[in-house]
Amino acid sequence: MELTLLFPLFFFTLSSATYISTLTLNQNHPSSSSSWRSDDEVMGLYKSWVIQHGKAYNGIGEEEKRFEIFKDNLRFIDEHNSNNNTTYKLGLNKFADLTNQEYRAKFLGTRTDPRRRLMKSKVPSSRYAHRAGDNLPDSVDWRDHGAVSPVKDQGSCGSCWAFSTIAAVEGINKIVSGELVSLSEQELVDCDRSYDAGCNGGLMDYAFQFIIDNGGIDTEKDYPYLGFNNQCDPTKKNVKVVSIDGYEDVPNNENALKKAVAHQPVSIAIEAGGRAFQLYESVSSPIFLMQNNTLQELECFTICHCLNIFPGSF
């Protein structure tokens, strides 16, 4: 049976998500500098946050530097959360001691290819083109169908593209075979080097093509994730547990994406470099992700662990 992976042209989703725990804040704090939190309160929050996330700073002046960044991020969080008209809340997650520039450099890994995207946009797939009479569900949660593996963490490696690819392959394999098998992101990081660059970024359609050309991909158990670039293991690369026959691009419109997601998980990318994204805690709508951001970064697949983006919800 043919396994087809979908890669939409309009790059919209979040992926290789990790569970983000946050420190609970008292939200009753005005955002003005004259009435903001006291120094003692900020220091208390910082110390609790350091313990919660197991932080340790060894360099001279590093802890003082991280505290000032933490304090600036906390003020940004309070200013945002004081606005009752927003659809999402920010919080002190594990990225709260990083500047936005540091966060982007350390965790985001999309390598966009404008020429390839332009070429593909001229010949989009018609399989999921919206047609009159299409009867599509209002929502689909592929977790309910057992097609989503437990949450994985890419760490500080810019391998989001690999996690997005693997999540989509795991999902379609479950739909077709009835078995959910956790597959190897590390194999893509180490071995898919014709166009992709491991922890320095990649693109999901190149990764799909690698799996096709290789004849399959190994399991996570056999080729476990390390979170850094390593030499390709040729023995494990030749262990082809799950294979795919192809992938295709979803036409560039919302109805086509709804139709595609109704059939299987879809690999997509979203702009995830904004400061609000870095510090998010909870969200009721994904629209905020596209506000005040310019770069397309973090990969994912449509049934996201952290946002649960469903067809028709954006």
From TrEMBL:
Sample GO molecular function, one term: cysteine-type peptidase activity
Domain Peptidase C1A papain C-terminal: 136-304
Keywords, alphabetical: Disulfide bond, Hydrolase, Protease, Signal, Thiol protease
UniProt domain Cathepsin propeptide inhibitor: residue ranges: 46-103
UniProt record, GO biological process: proteolysis
Alphabetical list of Gene3D superfamilies matching this protein: Cysteine proteinases
Xref: CDD domains: Peptidase_C1A
A UniProt-annotated Pfam family: Peptidase_C1
PROSITE patterns (alphabetical): THIOL_PROTEASE_CYS (PS00139)
Leader peptide range in chain numbering: 1-17
Family membership: Belongs to the peptidase C1 family.
Protein name from the UniProt record: Cathepsin propeptide inhibitor domain-containing protein
